[in-house]
Amino acid sequence: MFQAAAKTFSVAPTASVCRGILSSIRQYCKKTPTKLRVSEALSSAELGTNVKVQGWVRSVRPQKANLFLHVNDGSSLQSLQIVAGSELCDPLLTFGSAVEVTGILKKSPNQKQTVELEADQIHVVGECNPVDFPFKIKERHGLEYIRQFPHLRCRTNAFSSLLRVRSEATTAIHSYFKENGFVQIHTPIITSNDCEGAGELFQVEPSGPEHEEGENFFSVPAFLTVSGQLHLEVMSGAFSRVYTFGPTFRAENSQSRRHLAEFYMVEAEVSFTQSLEDLTKVMEDMFRSATEHVLAHCAEDVALFHKHVTPGHRDTIDAMMKRRFPVITYSEAIDILNRSSQKFTFPTDWGCDLQTEHEKYLVKHCGNIPVFVTDYPYDLKPFYARDNQDHPKHTAAAVDLLVPGVGELCGGSLREERLDLLRARLEEVGLEETYSWYLDLRRFGSVPHGGFGLGFERFLQCILGIDNIKDVTPFPRFSHSCLL
Predict the structure, then answer these.
(1) Which residues pair with 224 in a beta bridge?
(2) CA distances from 373 to 196, 289, 351 (A)
(3) What is the CATH number of the domain that holds 106?
(4) For residue 304, how far is the Cα from the chain centroid?
(5) Residues 103 and 158 in one domain
(6) d(Cα 316, Cα 302) in Å, to the nearest integer?
(7) Domain residues for 408?
(8) What is the DSSP letter of 352?
(9) Measured in whole angstroms, how far is the alpha carbon of residue 163 from the centre of its chain?
(10) 3-state helix, strand, coil in the chain (%, to 5)
(11) pTM value?
């Protein structure tokens, strides 16, 4: 290469030209930096090598001779310290700016971090005006404050930790079902069924001038799903264990701290069972498996919440994991509530629907650990819940899992597999024609089965101790809000 370059000169090249050519050769031969995520850099696996890190500046500390930055890319709660000469200080290097840094990854002399990146180049990719940026470098912002900025709150430590926990919890739930022989089913988002029978539905209609008003695109009214349960029941006629995990929608008051218009549900259906114990075992095992996974894989992120947002909640989690979940009947629950000295806003007569205040009291009564409540009044449950055919108090084979700080986390039941009883119930509520296909499931190879649904956001609230459900979802949609 040097000889080829020399031939371009009519006379022998000068020493300075030779140095320039050699410098170009060295630059050409220089190894391309290894691109690392911050979490990978912090693991110290690439010590002594030339690396490139991309992320956002979390702190800037210029000094006379040196410049110190902390850069984070969302892969870890901990940021990577960047050390550079003062000549690399750029007025655009501010809190919140996006940067690309190359240099040598070295062991840090400071005990507060194991490694640091000695930078030889810092490039500002995206500017950020720290005056206008709603989050300030030395302030710890509360969840209520950052909720005002749904498009920016992922830049905060608390919410980035929440999103990593949410991602890992999703993986944990899928892993549990896969390891236990469940087949995942993608149930539809648009459906004509109101599974819960409560009528809290979002109707789906086409827009545009080519569609006539009042004309149904699917020939029948269509809605956003409130549950994938009925579709899972279809699949339970061919698979003994199925589940789904996806978005569901409720057109109810979502201004409260407990409700969302759009949320995620984990739902499962188990065939060949006539025992609520089979369902409660899956509920409890899934809860424990997912919680253990999150605590193991997101220890720093969970600790941030338990230390700064919900201090003391880790003790509650540890107590949950050490004890089996007790089981009480609805009738026993009503007796407990009626014997209580606490004054409840809602009545506690047999036959009433348990409210959040009742659920939280029952959890505390049972030692502030999750508790199963079974055998609810038959009239409180949807048409598909199995009739216990007991008297004088008529109950259904239904179960709820109540957890600390949240109340109801899971709800499920055995399904009514007896054709005559199911038909009579549908006739009673005027739905026999609408659910004729559901009756077919009982005509052709039906088996006793049951299932449940778990509110994913409520699960996150439970393990992190977060009070407001809008603080555990990336983009909460609720009435009177601006949708991104």
Answers:
(1) 190
(2) 19, 21, 14
(3) 2.40.50.140
(4) 17
(5) no
(6) 13
(7) 153-471
(8) P
(9) 7
(10) 35, 25, 45
(11) 0.90
Determine the Cα–Cα distance for residues 480 and 482; give it in Å rounded to an integer: 7
Range in 84-88, 161-165, 210-214, 352-356 the model is least confident about: 210-214
Q: What is the pLDDT, as a whole number, of residue 6?
A: 47
pLDDT score of 254 more than 80: no
Range 95-126 burial, b when 16+ CB lie within 10 A, else e: bbbbbebbbbbeebeeeeeebbbebeebebee
The structure tokens 């029978």 sit at: 197
The tokens describing 375, both together, are: 């055998």
Task: Please report, for the domain that includes residue 333, its CATH number.
Answer: 3.30.930.10
Distance CA 342, CA 332 (A): 17
Evaluate if residue 205 carries a pLDDT over 70. yes
Indicate whether 269 and 161 sit together in one domain. yes
Q: Is residue 100 domain-shared with residue 162, that is, in the same domain?
A: no
pLDDT tens, residue by residue, 221-241 = 889 999 999 999 999 999 999
pLDDT at 169 over 80: yes
Helix (H) or strand (E) holding 443: helix 436-443
Task: With CA atoms as reference, report the closest residue to 147 among 480, 457, 469.
Answer: 469
Instruction: Give percent of the chain with pLDDT exceeding 70.
Output: 90
Question: How far is Cα 379 from Cα 382, in angstroms, rounded to an integer?
Answer: 8
